[in-house]
Please model this.
Amino acid sequence: MAEFTVNFAIETLGSLLVQETKLLRSVKKEVESIKRELEIIRSFLRDADTRAIAEEEGESNGGVVSTWAKQVREEAYHIEDVIDEYIFNEAKHHEHDGKGLTVFLHKMCCFMNEIKVRHGISSEIKDIKSSLVDIQRRAEHYNLRHIDQGDVVPHDSQVGSFFIQDAEVVGIESTIDQLIGLAVSGTSNRSVVGLVGKGGLGKTTLAGKIYKNDTVKKHFDCQAWITVGKECTKMDILRKTIQEFDRVTGFTHGEMDKMEENDMLTALDRQLKDKCYIVVFDDVWKTDFWGYIEYALIENNKGSRIILTTRNRGIVDLIPFVNVHRLQPLPSDKAFELFCRKAFGPQGCCSPNLEKISHDILKKCGGLPLAIVAVGGLLSNKNKVAFEWKKLLDNLGSQLGSNSHLKDCNKVLLEGYYGLPHHLKSCLLYFGFFPESYSINCARLIRLWIAEGFVPYSKRRTSEQLLKNS
Model:
């Protein structure tokens, strides 16, 4: 999260260097140096965010990386304060432009004060630079990786979604039957099914139900499930695919770490050339994914099937002749049915005194099965009284980061945040300024985003058009 603060500081420094011609020469050099230091530190932040999340979940000890990211954020705020003070004093200096003895004497007084202020700012800038050097040195000490391109997110394989019980599947039963029919019948050509939708809609659950279906298992000679995630490279995907098919076909390979790409393609060709196979690629992020596997998985006219799940419709749009199934939030009746099963047990009977508050809670869940299951499970252990449930409803946002029942929801939100381009991350975090459940006018919100500088300038399109196309 500190990356947003650092990015804003870098942009502010860049704007100051471009627009302000009256910086003291020594200060200008220091500002340029600070900007360069921040750009280097920013490249460590993506890895730091990954490590910090792992620390919060208890996967590593000490919290040193979280502390480091906090120090970076505080230094970025300090930079903003110094810049604001400098700009404020510059504005005061030009406030009394004009002629006359009084104006002249006032300007001389301001000039003397300005020298003191600039000297103080110069001293603060030197202190900032020294702090940033120390921060960068500590990043290297903690073995944070230098990442220039892309974000790294700790990937949640969503194993729980894969093994979800049939009794908890609500609202996608007909889709499951439709996709099973598509998998076991139809064309003998290799075909691709893309399951598309935002995090928490049940893409992994749906793919898992198809993959584990008895009819599907009997129809195909071999199956493979590959969890992709955002950090997977082409070689990672090929290696995982070979290993999965090795497990079910009986083929064995040597040390795959030493295999070149052509060796891997040859191995997959040998594994699958006479097989009717089905393979699921779960949680695909990269737009060039199809280029990774198009020639790796042989087209042998055996009726093979490829299923992929993704949040990004643009990924499946690049695949020829793909069958796209876009998952939607559960309608209110299905959402209530699933909620009742989780909150009240298999019979799913909601008492009349809790019905209204239950629907209010469901509005917060937005039809997302993951959120409904998580909140319903949390409420199943609470007293069935409206006061207790109202208290949870009022504090639902604050409990996302602290309650173990809601940990999966928090992970989905984090993955969605890290998947956004930089300027949209800023836009999303801006919602933190508004109270919970506050109604925000869309046009006003866009103007606020533009005023904050969250939207990049373009000669060809307005800021509003840039936001709509993001």
Remarks:
- The beta strands are 191-196, 222-227, 277-284, 305-310, 322-326.
- The longest helix spans residues 101-141.
- The chain has four domains: 2-141, 159-326, 332-412, 420-468.
